[in-house]
Amino acid sequence: MQTFLVLFFAILSEVIATTALKFTQGFTKLVPSLIVVIGYGASFYLLSLALKTMPIGVAYAIWSGVGLVLTVIAGMLIWREPLDWARVVGIFLILLGIVFINVISKAPTH
Q: Is residue 110 a part of any domain in this protein?
């Protein structure tokens, strides 16, 4: 359970950093740029901690998939980016893949 909590914060840090990336205006704005650097640093550090007890494929699938979904939601809420059918289907397939890996896979979790 602790591993998933660490992974959750790795995902949250990555989403914050990715969201701040758009605010940097090509790294010309100091505060958003610092948020990006600190956020990605924290995200990779926390991901590395999760990898101590979690298979890399599973951890990365969850990290990237959930991060993608949350980033799409942030784009919709902050920049009013549209959500078309292709995005919905793609997000669904990514989430289905994460569930499939975690439920069906026989790979050890430690």
A: no
Does 109 map to a domain?
A: no
Range of the domain at 80: 2-104
How many domains does the structure of the chain reveal? 1
Cβ proximity of 94 and 69 under 8 Å: yes
- The residues, ordered by sequence, that sit 6+ positions from 37 with a Cβ below 8 Å of its Cβ are 17
Give just the sign of the alpha carbon dihedral 28, 34, 73, 104.
positive
First to last CA, the chain: 12
> What confidence tens digit (pLDDT) does each residue in 65-107 have?
999 999 999 999 999 999 999 989 988 998 898 888 777 877 6
Domain for residue 67, yes or no?
yes
For the record, the structure tokens of 96 come out as 């289905």
Query: What is the number of helices (H) and of strands (E) in the chain?
Result: 4, 0
pTM reported for the whole predicted model: 0.86
Question: Cβ distance 69 to 91 under 8 Å?
Answer: yes
What is the number of alpha carbons within 13 Å of residue 51 lying toward its C-beta?
A: 12
